[in-house]
Amino acid sequence: MGGGLAGMMAGIALQQAGQNTAIVSQGQNALHFFSGTFESLQAPPVRLAELLSAAGIRVHYREGVRLMPLGTFKEAALSLDDIDLFPVPRFGKRVLIVNFLGYHDFFSSFLAEGLENQGMECRIRFLNLQELDNAKANGEMRSVQIARSMDRIWEKVVQEIRLLLKDEDTVILPQVFGLSDVTVPGRIRQAIPARVVFVGTMPPSVPGIRTQILLRRRFQLLGGTFLMGDEAVRAHEYEGVVHSIATHNLDAHYLEADNFILATGGLFSKGLRSNPFQISEPVLDLDIDHPEDRNDWYNPTFSAEQPYMGYGVKTDEKLHAVKKGEALKNVYAVGSILGNTRPELGSGAGLAIRSAFAAVDEILRSAQNDKSAQNGKEDYV
Ligand SMILES: Cc1cc2nc3c(=O)[nH]c(=O)nc-3n(C[C@H](O)[C@H](O)[C@H](O)COP(=O)(O)OP(=O)(O)OC[C@H]3O[C@@H](n4cnc5c(N)ncnc54)[C@H](O)[C@@H]3O)c2cc1C
User: Fold this and answer.
1) Which of 170, 186, 203 is the last residue of a domain?
2) What pLDDT band is residue 380 in, cutting at 50, 70 and 90?
3) Ligand 1: which residues within 6 Å by Cβ?
4) Do 331 and 243 lie in a common domain?
5) Same domain for 188 and 70
6) Residue 38 lies in a domain
7) Do the domain assignments include residue 40?
8) Is the same domain home to 178 and 229?
9) Probe target for ligand 1 pocket from 1, 9, 26, with the most ligand atoms within 8 Å of CB
10) Last residue of a domain, one of 203, 228, 244
11) Which domain holds residue 355?
């Protein structure tokens, strides 16, 4: 349940291990806002590196900082290949920032101001591309629409940038390349005689959507079933074991399985819901640890860390979801629905990936135990 990073990772790992898996995925997830940096992960563990590489997702690792959309720098480590990581918050002397006429989701002047504060000299230029005229006329100058054109016309963009380039050592471009062809950012870097840095735009995130598409493609290629746009609405449970779930689109046809993984995200993705009195988990009504008094849920200082962001469903040490104080035997909770309840698994993408792998390992281990027990019985007979 849930086709974000955690659900996709679990689904792919299960398919790879020979399990039949279906993912019910309601809609937009945090990958649509992905910066391209995997929080709380350093160099990728071998298993993750192999999974990403098989899916066609290119990552690299270096301890350093990355350039943010408003010209500031932020610590980063494991990142998608098109995100540059620098040892210090400065990377050149003279910078050409290239934007597209009519595109307002890339903040070139803020970016220039931030870089100038770091002692870099910036020049901003706008390309007026006739290929974007339709998008402009229809008011669709958003990152994904532009990215769809860019995969076709990136060579022309490169030619225009080469003409614009004077004595700059760095060219900055909005991250609207490589939506359908992961090799495009690398080819742009090779074709421009200066360092090329891609910088995040307003969501939706093009590298995030590309990551989501590649993960889904890999899952389906391995034989997984992806039920897009559907929603798990309730589970049928008896004595601590869930037998099936009902979904919105399948109506009275229930999805039966040996195991269920709840990867429906936190409050942001409606994996958790709230009203003035309680925070709840809508599919299984799982236990959530939060103070009774609503005034304790938040910090009145808006920009402070907010307690409610850390609330998540309760699990036992093997990530079995807990309901009315009892662990459900075949339901696992993974990803951001855990909130900060499992700090040892990290946060952000690190939490999504580590918890997904941990639940998959537990499912495979219990399947193996069941098989051994079955074989033992047969031997005895
Ligand atoms: C805006 C934002 C930006 C972020 N950026 C980063 C970043 O750059 N780097 C980083 O490391 N971390 C980032 N994070 C943290 C992020 O939570 C994790 O990295 C990770 O992507 C979470 O994945 P998830 O699968 O647990 O949840 P989600 O990505 O939230 O996915 C849950 C999915 O489940 C679906 N769903 C919900 N209810 C149901 C239901 N009943 N049935 C079926 N489907 C359902 C939702 O529609 C959604 O598609 C960001 C988080 C947010 C909110």
Assistant:
1) 203
2) low
3) 1-7, 24-31, 33-35, 37-39, 231-232, 263-265, 268-271, 283, 335-336, 348-349, 352
4) yes
5) yes
6) no
7) no
8) no
9) 26
10) 203
11) 5-33+210-380
pLDDT number for residue 379:
61
**Residues 27 and 68 occupy one common structural domain:** no
Give, for ligand 1, the residue of 34, 247, 270 to mutate: max count of ligand atoms closer than 8 Å to Cβ.
Answer: 34
Q: Of all protein residues, whose CA lies closest to atom 20 belonging to ligand 1?
A: 349
Averaged pLDDT, 100-109: 94
355 shares a domain with 234: yes
> Ligand 1, atom 30: nearest CA belongs to which residue?
265
Q: Which tokens belong to 98?
A: 């290239």
| d(CA 254, ligand 1 centre) in Å | 25
Residue 200 CA to ligand 1 center (angstroms) comes to: 18
Nearest atom in ligand 1 to 283's CA? 41
Mean pLDDT score across all residues of the chain: 95
Q: Ligand 1: which residue has its CA nearest to atom 13?
A: 348
Q: Mark whether 145 and 214 lie in a shared domain.
A: no
For ligand 1, the distance from its centroid to the CA atom of residue 127, given in whole angstroms, is 34
Kindly report, residue by residue over 17-58, the tens digit of the pLDDT.
999 999 999 989 999 999 999 999 988 889 999 999 999 999
pTM of the full predicted structure? 0.95
Query: CB–CB of 283/262 below 8 Å?
Result: yes
The CATH number linked to 250 is 3.50.50.60
Name which residue sits closest to atom 3 of ligand 1, judged by CA.
Answer: 33
- The answer to the question of residue 195 being in a domain is yes
Is residue 41 domain-resident? no
